[in-house]
Amino acid sequence: MERDHAGASELRRSDLARRTGCNLETIRYYESVGLMPDPPRSASGHRRYGPAHVERLNFVMRGRELGFTMEEIRGLLSLVDRGSHTCAEVEELGRHHLEVVQAKIRHLQAIEAVLSETISRCTGGSAPDCPLLDVLTDRPAVS
Amino acid sequence: MERDHAGASELRRSDLARRTGCNLETIRYYESVGLMPDPPRSASGHRRYGPAHVERLNFVMRGRELGFTMEEIRGLLSLVDRGSHTCAEVEELGRHHLEVVQAKIRHLQAIEAVLSETISRCTGGSAPDCPLLDVLTDRPAVS
DNA sequence: GTAGGGTCTGTAGCAACTACAGGATCAAGG
DNA sequence: CCTTGATCCTGTAGTTGCTACAGACCCTAC
Hints:
By secondary structure, chain A is mostly helical. Chain A folds into 2 domains: 7-85, Orthogonal Bundle (Multidrug-efflux Transporter Regulator, Chain: A, Domain 2); 86-143. Chain A is 60% helix and 0% strand. Chain A has helices spanning 13-20, 24-32, 51-65, 70-82, 87-120, 131-137. In chain A, helix 4 packs antiparallel against helix 5. Chain A is elongated. At the A-B interface, helix 3, helix 5 and helix 6 of A face helix 3, helix 5 and helix 6 of B. Chain A binds a DNA duplex through residues 12-14, 23, 25-26, 28-30, 33, 44-47, 64, 69-71.
């Protein structure tokens, strides 16, 4: 006879981790900050997860993969949890995040332009003169 | 007569901050982690900065603007401080950093592609159906 | 019954700052 | 000379998104 077993889909924490690919400690972290609900516990205090937890963790993980902050995911989840969300509301969160992503890309591209241009002027030799150091020290390039 | 004044270019912390555009607290932080040297102090313990500090802080700040980590900047500084650096050494640090930046750009662009494609399919209406939520829940798009 | 895993909690660490609190000190005006 | 307000000092805690312990408990299989 099995004790402490409320159904075929009761997962331990390591099962949930394996199934979702999420780090074990990260699951606890998501619970501690309220992204994941506190799961029911066995008599001895061990967490027991059901299919709803798997779904929710997948949601959170996909959100993170798309670069949403935990705050944004919280917003998305609360829309969904409310049960009366609209596409327009979700889209707005998405569009805002998209703009942030695009701004980051532009920022990195600006850095990339300076870096690659500067490095392309490096001789790579054993002399101390270096265009990259010139940029960092703001010494104007020798014209 | 001026007391506590060892030259025309002795700066207080707020002067250094203003002159470089660096946050006041950040200067202390850089000192605490060794990116900036501990400056000499006045009799009462107030920091006094000279031109060398301005130069070094500018170096650090330009490095940060180019996205170098503090560890990388530490590396660059130790090359320069050693006094016998070569362009090849500096270039290698720069090239490595460039690759990191390019990888970040690619990562963000992949995110951007998914996000903008998904959001473009949003109707923005008051219905709960939403392509972005579909992606997050991994519900396959209705074909 | 015991060995080995897994689980529990709390805490500290990472990067790179930023922001206080609570006190000392300085510079200028009266 | 004294007050006032700005600036300085230190130490500590907060931020984001985890990750990694330590030390105790528990659970399962042999």
